[in-house]
Amino acid sequence: MGDKPRVVSFLASGRGSNFRAVAGRIVAGKIPGARAGRLVVDNPQAGAIAAAREMKIPVDVVDYADYGKNRRSLFDAAILETLRGHSPDLIVAAGFMKILSAETVNSFPNRIINIHPSLLPAFPGVKAQEQAFQYGVKITGCTVHFVDTGLDSGPIILQKALTVGEDWSLETLRREILKLEHQALPEAVGLVCAGRVTVEGRRIRVRAPKKWWSF
Ligand code: GRF
User: Fold this and answer.
1) Residue nearest to atom 2 of ligand 1 (CA)
2) How far apart are alpha carbons 60 and 25 in whole angstroms?
3) 67 CA distance to ligand 1 centroid (A)?
4) What are 67-93's pLDDT values in tens digits?
5) Residue 164: pLDDT band by 50, 70, 90 thresholds?
């Protein structure tokens, strides 16, 4: 990627803490080479909307309830059309709870990234922290990966790990993983926007900056 700031669009469904973690840093000028685009949400109750308003980031609501399961293809088409309208260089799925259609994924090759709260390929899908907790793993964490047409299966950009405390509850685990997510996602966005990420099939090469951004 060149010198022009990269336009970063966002997809979110819920609370929006990862959206806030990335967009907040972009707006504060802490992610060189990135410019905040727009946020797309799939429900009008998403907490991410309030965060976007605070940061003066425009929001597009593509309400899943207007479509429903039977009209899923229309919802997918609306998401794709909305994203195309942003002309984004990068799309960050920050807690977006719908699987993107193959057409959407293929329209933005290696330009959509997702944050997942486990060390993939372990525990893909929903309730990843709960899956890891129930399994009894001693080490877990989070993964930022490019989105492909599978479920949480795209090439991995970066991962952050933690050791599960002996006395941790599921809530503690969720909270500690979330802290890592809030570091990992801005870092990954920074790396991609700085042109430091090269995709070679499944293997991603990351050229770390001389001076790492401190998030
Ligand atoms: C995060 O745990 C993320 O990893 C997962 O969904 C959750 C979203 O949380 N994909 P938030 O809306 O960013 O607070």
Assistant:
1) 117
2) 21
3) 23
4) 977 899 999 999 999 999 999 999 999
5) very high
Q: Phi then psi for 24, rounded to 5 degrees?
A: -60, -40
The residues lining ligand 1, judged by C-beta closer than 6 Å to any ligand atom, are 12, 14-19, 94-95, 115-117, 178, 181
Which residues does the annotation mark as catalytic? 116
What is the tally of helices (H) and strands (E) in the chain? 6, 9
The CA 81 to ligand 1 mean position distance, Å, reads 24
Distance between CA 158 and CA 112 in Å, rounded? 14
pLDDT tens column, 102-138: 999 999 999 999 999 999 999 999 999 999 999 999 9
- Candidates 51, 47, 46; CA nearest to 20 is 51
Atom of ligand 1 nearest to the CA of 48: 12
Which residue minimizes the CA distance to atom 14 of ligand 1? 17
Residue located via tokens 């260089």: 89
